[in-house]
Amino acid sequence: MKNQHTTNHLTISxxxxxxxxxxxxxxxxxxxxxxxxxxxxxxxxxxVRRADLERWLKGREDAA
Length: 64
Known about the structure:
Blueprint: H1 4-8, E1 9-11, H2 12-19, H3 23-31, E2 39-40, E3 46-49, H4 50-63
Antiparallel strand pairs: 1-3, 2-3
């Protein structure tokens, strides 16, 4: 069972799966500063907080 911390921090694969996009698309958006806010881990991994993804999606909804 995942703990609360794990479920609140999504991997890039998790985010891409939820958005139905390729990893390359996510990284293109990130380079263009159009992706959800990311956390860079000490080991070089990247995570996205669930709340940041939801907020980012809400912003896209308002722009649509």
